[in-house]
Fold these 4 entries.
Entry 1:
Amino acid sequence: MRYQISGKQIDIGKALQTHVQTELGEAVSKYAERPTDAQVIFSKSASEFVCEATVHLSTGLTAQAKAHEHEIYAAFDSCCAKLEKQLRRYKRRLKDHHSNRSQPVELFAGSSYILASDHADDEDSEPETLQPIIVAEMEAKIPSLSVGEAVMQMELANAPVLIFRNEGNEGVNVVYRREDGNIGWIDPKN
């Protein structure tokens, strides 16, 4: 597994890097057969250290976790425990997902835009134009998944929404977390 361990405006020593590689490698190898790479980012927020970990699995799925603690090793250990809990929860489905697939998840390119918000000082004022201002443009990857795999991917990534290409009908679908805690699925008619 490839590791990318970095810090945002903090120094990451060799001892911490070794600790991350050892502990994360053990935690992930228990539940995922062939993880491909891991990205761990440390940062400082006021008096707490923040650890964000993302692990990409050979099946195309991604697991993410984030933790805050007062010490940097404790932040990583807490983040690693959350990641391990997610993988343990989905172990059977991860293995089923891998056995059903002969090829990794196919990813399609898409465009992702960040639009400027309309924060007018006066709420009664009208905007100059109805066209939004594009702040940033990026490329997004849209996976080709079944609905069950999409829900699992959304849960593993701890994301509120996931856009995917439905393997059943080749259409673009959306799964999202509803306010009542359930999962919603949007399947437009073609």
Entry 2:
Amino acid sequence: MQLLERRRALVEERLVEVIDGIEPETLNAEVRHVVLSGGKRVRPVVTVLACETVGGTAEDAVDFGVGIELVHTASLVVDDIIDRSELRRGTQSAWAEFGHGPAIITSDGLLGEAFALFSTEPEATRVVAESMVELGIGEATELSAKPSNEAEYMTLARRKTGALFRAAAELGAIAADSDPVTVEALGEYAERVGIAFQIRDDVLDAVADAEDLGKPTGHDAALERPSVVQVTDLSPEEANARARAEAQGAIDALERVEVVDQDAKAYLLELAEFVVERER
């Protein structure tokens, strides 16, 4: 676990460096509020671990990892506006703290900084742009043509959460100069982890305590959002089993990768197990 914390620390240090360079001061303060208020940094750690798994270094991948974390955070800022959620990561959400206009500007600023980091590699820019298209379709679907069954829910989960996870891992593979087959296998691994993560997130919203979770619960039901509990006939226990099946699919995809660093691979395997067992 010490090595994993070193990777997180590397990401955190680079995040602070990027944010320190943001101007003007008002935007800097708003970005700092949303980015440095906590977070598990799962996506950038996936980027780093994917890179190391196939022979790259953490330093090779850290900028791409920071970039995908900024994209993810930008999407959360918008999510909180849509959901009218006043709490994020145990603190005030951007719109609740600064207002709707500044929150939207903060989201735009985060995306600008992210794509500056991806601009050194056209393939990285393409991967992230595609993931954002998928995310946008997912968000639009959630607001309008809501899924009505498990198959449609799974498509939504892939777009809403799986797409950014896929991009995170593919970015790591690209940073290591991997071939397209390896990029795809690592992408499938991460996409399935992301789907499992989303299913578990929906279950926690339905059954967890808000104080333990660090954000309001019951939002999906109150807003009639298409969570796995609301859309399907699955009980929370059955939904958790579905998440575990996706996690197993992720593990199977990872087994197709030609591994250089077994320790990094072991952490990716551990992540696939963690996302379905987490309590927050």
Entry 3:
Amino acid sequence: MIRRLTVPNLRIADPAGGASIGDMTTRDNELGAFLRASRSRVEPGDAGLAGGVSGRRVHGLRREEVAVLAGVSADYYARLEQGRERNPSAQVINALGHALRLAPEAREHLFRLAGLNPRLGPDSPRDLVHPSLLRMLETFAQAAAYVLGPALEVLAANPIADALLSPFGTERNMPRVLFTDPRAKEVFADWEVQLSSCVYALRLNAGRFPDDAEITGLVAELREASPQFRALWADHDVAGLTRKFKVFVHPEVGRVELTYQTFEVVDAPGQQLLVGTPEPGSRSEEALTYLASMAEPA
């Protein structure tokens, strides 16, 4: 039987205390911060520029080089980074995405930061898991399947996924689990890999849903609670939850290796269906069978 999970109330920092997704400067100029972080990751040679890195005091491209590659003036690009230019065209943003060698998801994030993508309205049904999707979870009898919301909280899970996450009690927000629950290091064998993957996916969603109070509150909370989260969030890197290999060390069944596929829920923007499957005939498959039998009603 599929259990629809109740997502606990987020512990949102008191606005009077000043906590937010970033400090005031970063919050008011997320586009500039993202551009600066992105150009710092592109070396001149990778962008087809001669001269190498000799004599450079910092890594990455200079502002002037990004401007040349994107076909805009150096002054205009500087104003974009500084937040003095707030209305770039789609053509300019597209050119910057190419100049900075951004992956498709990062380019999408750039467009959204520039205000060039539609935002979800306040009445979006993204926090509801459609009954047909709940029924679909039941069909994955030998896989761990669950639905994530925009703040990467598990909205619904099949019995196997529920059993895999049982060491964390009732907490089902994955960023909070990874960064604040000491058991996460024991359960996730590749814990450090999961940290960066989680933060980059959360930042991608923060760009997609900039007015989402749950994401904003979660980020404020974790920036306060976890130095590791603060450092990864400051990277301004984005990546979606594509195919992933995850290793669990469950207290009941031991090591479980799963390959996850992620599917966007088209009629509920922000929701994603994740399905983790083991190699046929493997010990991990046996472990999932055992977990499924434990979850069956007596």
Entry 4:
Amino acid sequence: MHLLLIDDHPLFGAGFAHALEVVRPTVRVRTAPTLDAGLKLAAADDRLDIALIDYRLAGENGLAALASFGRRFPLVARVLITGEDVRHLVCQARAAGAVGCLGKQHSAEAILAALERVLDGGECFDEPDGARAPAAPVASATARQMEVLALIAKGRLNKQIADQLGIAERTVKLHITALLQAFDARNRTHLLVKAREHGLL
């Protein structure tokens, strides 16, 4: 099993890689502190099976980073990892293209078992009692809308968002309208408040 961990905490990355490789010596784990570094490693490794991306990635929205990675490497399975309560992230992670969402508190054995399910074509979402978490208001949000939301949180104007994502400004407005409806938000400021309430920012 060849894994890529994108996490900006070097001690966690080193410990994660060591723990998994000790439990199963055939596992290979490469680590990257940023999305850009992870993309470069992925481009150089055609054996990569799964990319694990931290939700609280410095300088990036982990969900947007997960979606960006998927556009570059659609055949690599993506799993969101987090030190927070994952129940509020399951729907967002699915919408961003993840096949799993795991808490960092799990043992190496449990993480490996979950990743084995992914290799077998399954999913590995942490959900209470094995049940699917209740649908969140953002369950229908697309990966592109997640990116727009992340840029709104950074204070970008519609034209700046359009330029950065390479889309028309009118399309940005449509994405924002869809986000306002999904979150039942009155305006951009209220949208950010609601997004934070749902653990999206």
